[in-house]
Amino acid sequence: MKLYADKFGTDNVKIIQDSNKVNPKDLDPKYAYIQVTYVTPFFEEKEAEERKTDFEMHHNINHFVFETPFTLSGKKHGGVEEQCKRRTILTS
């Protein structure tokens, strides 16, 4: 955060703490936004088999995954039978 506050000014940086998709039309163009979420390492099956040690499983990683719950109706909450999970894979 300090890096961006130094670059854009402390009052010009806002954090989005929600993993949901952000509609760019809802953002004020005078601010720099940072979206924060929790990610875990992601490996394709073959790569996971090749990474044998704990060190290999936690270093030199360029794919990460996070999951976001949602309902098909668009409601924030629903019964267990209505809930779905969206998996997003990020590459750095």
TrEMBL record:
Every DOCKER domain range: 1-92
GO function term, MF aspect, one: guanyl-nucleotide exchange factor activity
Gene Ontology BP term (one): dendritic spine morphogenesis
InterPro entries: DOCK (IPR026791), DOCKER_dom (IPR027357), DOCKER_Lobe_B (IPR046770)
Top-level taxonomic group: Eukaryota
Family as reported in the entry's similarity comment: Belongs to the DOCK family.
Protein name: Dedicator of cytokinesis protein 10-like
Species classification: Eukaryota, Metazoa, Chordata, Craniata, Vertebrata
Gene (name only): LOC113431329
